[in-house]
Amino acid sequence: MQESLKSNNLNGRLIAMCGKGGVGKTALTALMIKILVSSGNHLKLLAIDADPAMGLPIALGVDIKKTMGAVRDEIIRTARTAKDERKIELADMLDYMVFEALTELDGYSLIAMGRSEAGGCYCPVNDLLRSAIEELSKGFDIVIIDGEAGLEQIHRNVMRNIDTLIAITDKSARGLQVVDTIKKMAMSGKVIRCSRMGMVINRIRAEEKEQAIKSAREIDIEILGCIPEDDNIAQNDFIGKPILDIEDTSPSIAAVKDIVVKLDVLPSSA
Q1: CATH number of 8-60+102-113+140-262
Q2: Nearest CA to 128 among 109, 147, 101, 156?
């Protein structure tokens, strides 16, 4: 079991969110950030938006000036056109370029992967940037990755190894099927390697909870928690207000705090 955060020694816990589109991965990521920042534990927290749609900055109310996609494009343009001296200079500036894409905020930092405009695979560039992000992440107590629907984006562009993979689903059969597929991919170790995997059932009504948990147990995966439908999140989303601004009394807050405690990234008394 991971050491409690009271010691502020987490050795860089890496937590990644995944699941089918529209199940609430970004909302859960934002709520976890809200809870961790307000916990009073003075953690060094890094959030990584690995979804090219870049929903996390919107949910957090953050204006991103530069994405890792832009860094990637700059490297590719230089590799195509620059002289050898400039290429060497650019390689030496890689850490600075990654730092430029880091947005430092009150209580946490944020990197958005964004989209790359350059065509082609350029796997060596992806590997270079992934290694830079992995190195940067070592300076943080907790790294939370908001991923897109599959695992490939996380593996290819962000991390090869994570501590905890959280598969989010709604009550739909399709959502559970995607979780089952993600579990099999994770267990194979070919796409991404993780030490622990759990499921969160999102947007569930009280009368649906028992049946949803029963269906989820058929997948044979740890159920980290259930998040109730929260009109406050829907309202903030509708008016374009950051999820971070929802009231602490909102029903989703207590549910997500229980999940955070279960993950051993907050002491139970926080």
Answers
A1: 3.40.50.300
A2: 156
User: Rounded distance, CA 242 to CA 93, Å?
Assistant: 34
Which sequence spans correspond to the domains of the chain?
8-60+102-113+140-262
pLDDT tens for the chain, 270 residues: list them. Answer: 333 333 333 456 999 999 988 899 999 999 999 999 998 888 899 999 988 889 999 999 999 999 998 998 888 887 777 677 766 777 678 888 889 999 999 999 999 998 888 766 667 777 888 888 888 999 999 999 998 766 766 766 688 788 999 999 998 999 999 899 889 888 887 778 889 999 999 999 999 999 989 998 999 999 999 999 999 998 998 898 999 899 999 999 999 999 999 998 865 555
Residue type, 161: N
Sort strands 109-112 and 102-104 into parallel, antiparallel or unpaired: antiparallel
**48 phi, psi to nearest 5 deg:** -120, 120
